Amino acid sequence: METLPDMEKDSPTSNLLAFVHTIVIYVWVVIATLVIGLTVILCSFFSKTGNSVHHVARLWGRSILWISGLRVQVEGLENIDASRSAIYMSNHQSNFDIPVFFSVLPVQFRWLAKAELFKIPFFGQSMRRAGYISIDRSDAKSAIRSLGRAAQSIREGTSVLIFPEGTRSHDGALLPFKAGGFLLAVDAGVPIVPMAVRGTYEVMPKGRKIIRRQAVHLVVRPPIDSRAFTRKTKNELMARVQDAIEEAMTIQPGGGGRA
Asked: 248 to each of 3, 149, 223, 256, how far by Cα in Å?
């Protein structure tokens, strides 16, 4: 994938511009997060479904992409059925993945979050009202119970977005998947929608502070029915999702075959 021509990495002038642009982005992210974060907390106390919270978060994501000068090309949106709940799974390349998904996915979704976050005054209450799902990893029994509650929420209509790698990639390559999301999928009995994002690694790799403008490409693949699998065969489901994401990572913008 080619970077935008005005941001050639080897040019001292462009490196200086990238540094200044990065400072502007950081300042904007702090301000936007504070302002929109307070708005989200307020909205959560007046929203019965949490949908208004997601709309506000979408504004946050779009504002970050705008100030960063990022363009996102999306393919495969026809594979999303907004009328039913699903588990969306994607590779994880950068901190910019989150604003990308908030900005371009035309569907309400929630995140799984550590149970400790829900104990923070006001913030935790707003997360719960917004529909975010608590996962307690303090011990095995708590984890099992929280997965059960999460599966119930998904069956009742809440879609979630999960990074099955569990962390950002250090080099842009796909990391081994963790099993938790697939246990959740077979327990909930909802489809998994595989997705792949390209370009955000070049925008801001893990461990790097400078942000560079880059064309971003998001590919959404057809859903995989988790009802054909069980907890015992979850590794087969994991392999199918991994294959779908790896294939999506190779698709060129415009659907022009593999990279």
From this structure: 20, 31, 13, 12
DSSP 257: -
The helix (run of H) or strand (run of E) holding residue 249 is helix 234-249
Are 89 and 128 in contact by the 8 Å Cβ rule? The answer is: no
Domains of the chain with bracketed CATH: 5-249 (3.40.1130)
- The Cα–Cα gap between 172 and 197 comes to 10
Query: pLDDT tens for residues 57-109?
Result: 999 999 999 999 999 999 999 999 999 999 999 999 999 999 999 999 999 99
Transcribe 27-87 into DSSP letters. Answer: HHHHHHHHHHHHHHHHHHTT-SSSHHHHHHHHHHHHHHHHHHT-EEEEE-GGG--TTS--E
